[in-house]
């Protein structure tokens, strides 16, 4: 088998076999196929696409290129959730304790953030002493004992994806649905859970700006998961404005705790409950969506989800006192209100710019080696459709550097579009994709 022939085959819009795709992925991972040939293949895929079967084979070849997390010693149906990323997206911190409080094992492997805020791992490190660097044995023991554990991604999880993605990033071959879907799903499949719930964001703060593109990605990922024998759901959710009101690290943790205490923002609660409901359905702990949602709401009312979060933090070395007293979490030294320049209604929020303001403050990483300031961030006071009065606060900035505060202020002001007419508020959730099709939320 020759790489030249396989590049030519895809260039001519032919379908590759499972064996041919495995040859490409394994050869590139081991170094026998050079960058220039893999680049040519990826460009051929971008131009001529892969069908569902090819995409599934490509995904499984990447998943099998390294470690597959063995969760066979975990009792019960294991569930996991993945988000395509957005501004203020802290749903994992909310839904994981709720689901675990129902006795469903949540086994999560999460990464660090690169961009406007930290990832789930970074946010959890707001709790003094908390560590995601626990052994495989401890990981399994924690899941069996308290039904929740989160670890950092291992270096050898889907190594083919890491290598291929780095090449895609510099060869203008990122924006292909098959390649995006296989990149995400190879890591989820290698993570070992039985049920995968996907949160596919769409809007100004999402990777997929258009609903149609988000829908295509959601369908492709559900197809891959189903072919891999995983119960897979995908929800398309709104990212035309930040989710919740907090953007940062410690302040997002505070908002997650407020939500588990019954005092969180409505949009964050609704999106978290809906995602969690499909995790519960997939685990067979409820017969209908409505039943799943009701029992999850019960974990907030009874405080069992909050207690589960404290138990989880304690099990991984963190100080659980911060769960019950979130005011102990770090807060930046500068608190500054960004005020509205005029009267009107919030017509549009350039959500990417809000994310960039958080990055400017130090809440995210420009490179993998950047150090995150966990104490900085933004609280959004005005969201889409809200009435605004001149000089009323649009947002509050938490900063440790005044120059960074000034730059973030400019970005926040530039991110808000205010009109004289009233504006319709977008839905929190657009649709749900399952193996049986698409339904509107």
Walkthrough of the structure:
The protein has 441 residues and is an alpha+beta fold. The chain folds into three domains: 3-48, Transferase, Pyrimidine Nucleoside Phosphorylase, Chain A, domain 3, CATH 1.20.970.10; 79-154 and 177-325 and 429-440, 3-Layer(aba) Sandwich (Pyrimidine Nucleoside Phosphorylase, Chain A, domain 2), CATH 3.40.1030.10; 331-419, Aldehyde Oxidoreductase, domain 3 (Alpha-Beta Complex). 45% of the residues lie in helices and 17% in strands. The protein is built from 17 helices and 14 strands. The chain has helices at 3-11, 18-30, 35-48, 52-63, 91-101, 120-124, 136-146, 159-170, 177-190, 211-227, 250-260, 266-282, 289-301, 304-315, 321-324, 351-361, 402-415, and strands at 79-83, 106-110, 148-152, 195-202, 231-238, 246-248, 334-339, 344-349, 377-380, 387-388, 393-399, 416-419, 429-434, 437-440. The strands form four sheets. A five-stranded mixed β-sheet has the order 1-4-5-13-14, sandwiched between helices. It has a four-stranded antiparallel β-sheet with strand order 6-9-11-7. Strand 13 and strand 14 (437-440) form a beta hairpin. Helix 1 (3-11) runs parallel beside helix 3 (35-48), helix 5 packs parallel to helix 11 (250-260) and helix 16 packs antiparallel against helix 17. The mean pLDDT is 94.
């Amino acid at each position: 088998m020759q790489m030249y022939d396989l590049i030519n085959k895809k260039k001519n819009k032919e379908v590759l076999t499972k064996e041919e795709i495995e040859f490409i992925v394994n050869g590139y991972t081991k170094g026998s196929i050079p960058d220039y040939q893999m680049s040519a293949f990826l460009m051929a895929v971008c131009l001529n696409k892969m069908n569902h079967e090819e995409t599934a084979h490509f995904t499984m070849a990447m998943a099998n290129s390294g470690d597959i997390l063995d969760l066979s010693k975990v009792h019960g149906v294991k569930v996991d959730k993945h988000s395509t990323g957005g501004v203020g997206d802290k749903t994992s911190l909310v839904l994981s304790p709720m689901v675990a409080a129902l006795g469903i094992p949540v086994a999560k492997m999460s990464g660090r953030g690169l961009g406007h805020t930290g990832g789930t791992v970074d946010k959890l490190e707001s709790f003094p002493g908390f560590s995601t660097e626990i052994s495989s044995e401890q990981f399994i023991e924690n899941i069996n004992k308290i039904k929740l554990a989160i670890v950092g991604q291992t270096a050898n999880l889907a190594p083919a994806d890491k290598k291929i993605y780095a090449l895609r990033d510099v060869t203008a071959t990122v924006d292909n649905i098959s390649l995006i879907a296989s990149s995400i799903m190879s890591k989820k499949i290698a993570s070992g859970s039985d049920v995968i719930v996907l949160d596919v964001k769409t809007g100004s703060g999402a990777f997929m700006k258009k609903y149609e593109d988000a829908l295509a990605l959601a369908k492709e990922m559900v197809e891959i998961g189903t072919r891999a024998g995983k119960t897979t759901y995908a929800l398309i959710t709104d990212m035309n404005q930040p989710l919740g009101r907090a953007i940062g690290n410690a302040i997002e943790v505070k908002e997650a705790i407020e939500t588990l205490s019954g005092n969180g923002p409505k949009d964050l609660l609704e999106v978290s409950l809906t995602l969690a409901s499909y995790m519960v359905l997939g685990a067979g702990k409820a017969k209908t969506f409505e039943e799943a949602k009701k029992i999850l709401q019960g974990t907030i009312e009874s405080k069992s989800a909050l207690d589960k979060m404290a138990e989880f933090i304690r099990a991984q070395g963190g100080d659980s006192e911060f769960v019950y007293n979130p005011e102990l979490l770090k807060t930046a030294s500068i608190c500054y209100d960004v005020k509205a320049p005029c009267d009107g209604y919030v017509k549009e929020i350039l959500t990417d710019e809000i994310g960039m303001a958080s990055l400017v403050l130090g809440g995210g990483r420009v490179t993998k080696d950047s150090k995150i300031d966990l104490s900085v961030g933004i609280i959004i006071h005005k969201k889409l459709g809200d009435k605004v009065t001149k000089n009323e606060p649009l947002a509050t900035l938490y900063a440790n550097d005044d120059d960074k505060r000034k730059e973030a202020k400019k970005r926040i002001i530039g991110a808000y579009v205010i009109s004289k007419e009233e504006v319709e508020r977008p839905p929190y959730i657009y649709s749900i994709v399952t193996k049986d099709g698409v339904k509107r939320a």
